[in-house]
Amino acid sequence: MNMIEIENLDVVFGNNPEQALKLLDENLSREEIIDKTGSVVGVQNANLTIKQGEICVLMGLSGSGKSSLLRTLNGLNPITRGSLRVKDKEEGTIDIATCDENTLRHLRTNRISMVFQKFALMPWLTVAENVAFGLEMKGINKRERLEKAKEKLEMVGLDQWANSKPHELSGGMQQRVGLARAFAMDTDILLMDEPFSALDPLIRSQLQDELLELQQKMKKTILFVSHDLDEALKIGTNIAIMESAKIIQHGTPEDIVLNPKTPYVEAFVAHTNPLNVLGGDTLMTNKEDLAVDKDRLIIDRNQGYWVSLQEGKILKAGKGEQELPYVAWQAGDGEQGKFAVASSAIGMRDAINLRYTSRLPVLLTQDEQFVGVLNDNNFYYALLGKHFVAD
Amino acid sequence: MNWIIEHKVPMGQWIESFVDWLVGNAAGFFDAISFSLEWLILGVTDILLLSPPSLLITLTAALAWWLQRSLGLVVFIVLSLLLIANLGYWSEMIETLVLVLMAAFICVLFGIPLGILAAHYPKFHTIIRPVLDLMQTIPTFVYLIPTLILFGLGVVPGLISTIIFAIAAPVRLTALGISSVPEELLEAGKAFGATRRKLLFKVELPAAMPNIMAGVTQCIMLSLSMVVIAALVGADGLGKPVVRALNTVNIAQGFEAGLAIVLVAIMLDRLCKQPNRNN
Questions:
Q1: How many CB atoms are located within 10 Å of the residue B17 CB?
Q2: B195 contacts in A (CB within 8 Å)?
Q3: Interface residue B275 vs chain A (CB under 8 A)
Q4: Order of strands across the sheet that contains A296-300
Q5: Do B188 and A118 touch (CB under 8 A)?
Q6: Is A38 helix (H, G, I), strand (E, B) or coil?
Q7: Which chain B residues are within 8 Å of A74, Cβ to Cβ?
C-alpha cells in the first residue's frame, strides 16, 4: 500500500518561482537559474513512491535537495509545482501541494511527525514536557499528555530523566528525546532529517540499531535523510540518491551498490563497506557456471573441492578423492573441516566468517536446492569493489 | 548661502502649532489621561504609605527570597530599607517606587507587543527604529515642555516623560529576542502542528524570555534614572530632595537622597536579575 506518492514535484525558493519554473522547463541548469532570477531550485521533478512500513532514505551531499524534499512533506517547504499525496488515516489521500492550513495542521498533528538534526528541543521545558510538546499542540490535557510522554520515554530508555532539562543530557540522549517526541504523536509517518549526523560515530551506530529495533515493533513509514551512504545502506529499505535537486537513482541498497547508474553514485558507492550490504546470492558463483567432472561439480579447481548433487540437493562434498562432511548453518561460527551449507540470503560478513572458521568454501542453497558457492575469489572480488564498477 | 540663512525653515513653529492644535482640540482627551493616571498613581501610593513599613519590608524580603533564593540579597534589602527609613526618605521612596514601577509596567504593556510586531514585520521595524532612537536620544527637557503643557504640572508629565525615555528598551530587546529564536525551534513548533498563536506563546516568547526580561530590567533602571527630572515638573519622590538640595547647595541632603536612589536601584536590579540558566 502506498503511503506517500510524490509526482513531478518542484520546489523553488525565491520571489519569482514562476519564472524559475519556466527556465527549468527550458532545461537551464540550477546555476543559470540562480544567476538569471535569484531563485534557488531546491527540488526538480521528483518522483517517489513510499510504501507503508518502508524506510526510505534520501541520500546526497549537502545542497543536493534531500532536506528540501523531506520538508515539503509536512509543509515546512512550499511545493511550487507537482503533487505530493499522503494517505490519510482510514481512507482517502491528502495532496499537500493544494491542501489548506487546517488540513496541513491535521497532517502535522495526526499523520506526520518529525525528528530534527539538531534535536530542536525546547531548552526551557523538561524532558517530559518536551516529549509532550506535540500533544500539547494537539490540545490534549496536561495529565494525559505527561502520562503518554512517560510511556514513550520508557520506550527510549530515558524515564529517569523525565524531569531534567535537555541541556543536562548528552547528544545521543537528547536525540532519543527527539525520537520519543515524534513517537508520542502516534503518527504513521516519521520524517527524520539527518537525525544522527550530529552524534559521534559510536552513538550514531547505536541509535541506528535502536531505530531499527523500534521500527520492528512500530512499523512506521519513515523518510530518512542522510549524507552517509553506510547509514543509508544499513537502515534503508529503499534509497533515493539525489544530486543537484534531482533524484538520480532509487532502489534497494543492494541495487544501488551493484548497479550505480551514474558516475556520481559510483563514486559514492566506491567508498562503502560491502560487508553490510551484499548478500550470498549476489556474491556467489552460480551452479551453472561451475565446471562439471562426471557427476561432480568442481567448486574450487586449485584446491580440488567438489560437490555432487541428487535431484538438485547436496549429496556429497569433498576434496580430491576424500569425502568431507557438511553441516547446515544457522548462526555463529562454522566447524573446521566441515562444509557449511547456508541460505543464499546470507550476508557477506557471515559468509566470510564461515569461510574463515570452516577453512572451506561456503555452499549456498535455496529451498534446499544447491544454487552456488562462495569461495575466496568471490570475496576478493567484492572486497576490491569490483562489484561497484561495471566490468 | 545668504539666501539660505535669511529664509529660516520654521521647524520650531510647526511643532509649536501642532502642540497648540493638540491643546485646542484634544484637551479633553489629555485631561482624561492625566486625571486617571494621577488617580491611579496617588491611590497606589496612598495604600502603600498607609501600610506599616515593617510589613512592606517583610513582604519585600519574602519576595526577594521567593525570586532569587539568596540570603545575602534578603539581608541587603532589609538593611537598605531600614537605612532609607532611618534617613527619613521612606515616603519619598514609596512615591518613587510607584512612579518607576508604573512607568515600567506601562512600557512593558506596550513595549512587548510592539517588539513582537517589530520582529514579525520587518517593515514595521524599519519604521519604528528611528522613532525609538529619537525617543532615547532627544534631550528630556525638549519634550518635557510639551508634556507639561498637555498634562499639566505633577506626577503625570513625569510619568509620560519617563515612559518616552524608557519604552525603547523593552521594544528593542523583545524584537531582538523574538527574531533570534533558533530557526529549528520554530520549525519544530510548526512541524508539531502549532498554530501561529501557539507558536508565539509556546515557542517564541519562552525562547525570547531571557532577552525580554533583560529589557524589563533595563526599562526599570532607565525609569529610575528619570526620577530627578520627573521631580523638576512636580512629581513627588526621591528626586524632589535632590532638586531642593541642588537649589539650596545642601550637600548633606543631596548625598542622602542620592544614596537612597542608588539603594533603590540596586534592590530593583538584583530582584529582577534572571537566575542563571545554563542553556
A1: 12
A2: 105, 137
A3: no
A4: A291-293, A296-300, A305-310, A313-319, A322-324
A5: no
A6: coil
A7: 190-191
Q: What is the DSSP string of A74-87?
A: TTSS---EEEEEEE
The mean pLDDT of A120-136, rounded to a whole number, is 95
- CA distance linking residue A25 with residue A231, whole number of Å: 34
From chain B, pick out residues whose CB is under 8 angstroms from the CB of A134. Answer: 192-193
A122–B184 CB contact, under 8 Å: no
Percentage of residues in chain A with pLDDT exceeding 70? 98
> Is B277 contained in some domain?
no
> Given this model, what pLDDT does residue B278 score?
41
Q: Reduced to 3 states, what is the DSSP secondary structure of residue A94?
A: strand
B188 touches chain A (CB under 8 A): yes
Q: Do B193 and A109 touch (CB under 8 A)?
A: yes
Q: Cell 502649532 appears where?
A: B17
DSSP string for A278-315: -BHHHHSEEGGGSEEETTEEEEETTTTEEEEEETTEEE
* Residues of A whose CB is below 8 A from B275: none
Query: Has residue B279 been placed in a domain?
Result: no
The domain that contains B232 carries what CATH number?
A: 1.10.3720.10
DSSP, collapsed to helix, strand or coil, labels residue A23 as helix
Asked if A226 and A59 touch (Cβ cutoff 8 Å), the reply is yes
Rg (CA), chain A: 25
Residues B148, B157 contacting (CB under 8 angstroms): yes
Contact A109 B192 (CB under 8 A): yes
pLDDT tens per residue, range B173-200: 999 999 999 999 999 999 999 999 999 9
**Is A133 in Cβ contact with B188 (below 8 Å)?**
yes
Q: Across the 279 residues of chain B, what is the mean pLDDT of every consecutive 10-residue run? A: 86 89 87 90 93 94 91 94 94 93 94 96 95 89 84 87 92 96 94 94 95 93 88 88 92 92 93 63
B127-132 own/partner pairs: CB under 8 Å, 24+ apart: B128/B171, B132/B167, B132/B168, B132/B171, B132/B172
Residue A340 phi/psi, 5° resolution? -95, 130
**A to B CB pairs, distance under 8 Å:** 65
- Of the partner residues A75, A108, A118, the one whose CB lies closest to the CB of residue B192: A108
pTM: 0.81
Check if the beta carbon of residue B212 is closer than 8 Å to that of residue B177: yes
**Cα A274 to Cα A293: distance, rounded to the nearest angstrom:** 33
Minimal Cα distance from A107: which residue of B?
B193
What residue numbers bound the domain in which B72 lies?
A: 31-179+210-272
Work out how many domains chain B is built from and give that number: 1
Asked if residue B13 belongs to a domain, the reply is: no
Asked whether residue B262 is assigned to any structural domain, the reply reads yes
Cross-chain residue pair B194–A76, CB shorter than 8 Å: no
Interface test with A, best of B180, B184, B192, B201 (most A CBs within 10 A): B192
The per-residue pLDDT for A90 is: 75
Domain A2-111+187-272 grouped into CATH 3.30.200.20: no
pLDDT band at residue A385 under the 50/70/90 scheme: low
Q: Extract the runs of DSSP E, i.e. beta strands, from B7-87.
A: none
Contact: A75, B190; criterion CB under 8 Å? yes
The H or E element that residue A41 is part of is strand A40-51
